[in-house]
């Protein structure tokens, strides 16, 4: 697993051993950022200068990819100790400590946000059905009114949650990406 583009292009990312963390595949991240860059509702300004939240961060691949492509800041929410260690190592390897905030917190019960984010990535465990709870919890301060939310589901299980408008949907193997905006 590596950073696909931008100033950290090619940087390999550490991942914890085992199946507890399921990093978003390189090809899925590439497809997601291509959508963000080129869709009518997207554009470079959606990423460049953005304040980003990578919820269920795992290795931090999505947030670090956004930083590599010009995002201003990134916050990461993660609860798993091994994933937190890999996340912190990946941030250090990219020398992005000054632009990152790592919170050992559950995205379904997040701490108070310092400021709302304009770009959010949610990649929860597929089998747990926590996407809707996380989005509802994050809506209380983490999600800017004009935010773009990139939500990864297991293929066939994606349904836009209440309160969010569907902008795009793509399937990539076991992953189904929904790009949402607050309704």
From TrEMBL:
<dbReference type="Pfam" id="PF03602">
    <property type="entry name" value="Cons_hypoth95"/>
</dbReference>
<protein>
    <submittedName>
        <fullName>16S rRNA (Guanine(966)-N(2))-methyltransferase RsmD</fullName>
        <ecNumber>2.1.1.171</ecNumber>
    </submittedName>
</protein>
<dbReference type="GO" id="GO:0052913">
    <property type="term" value="F:16S rRNA (guanine(966)-N(2))-methyltransferase activity"/>
</dbReference>
<keyword id="KW-0489">Methyltransferase</keyword>
<dbReference type="InterPro" id="IPR029063">
    <property type="entry name" value="SAM-dependent_MTases_sf"/>
</dbReference>
<keyword id="KW-0808">Transferase</keyword>
<dbReference type="InterPro" id="IPR004398">
    <property type="entry name" value="RNA_MeTrfase_RsmD"/>
</dbReference>
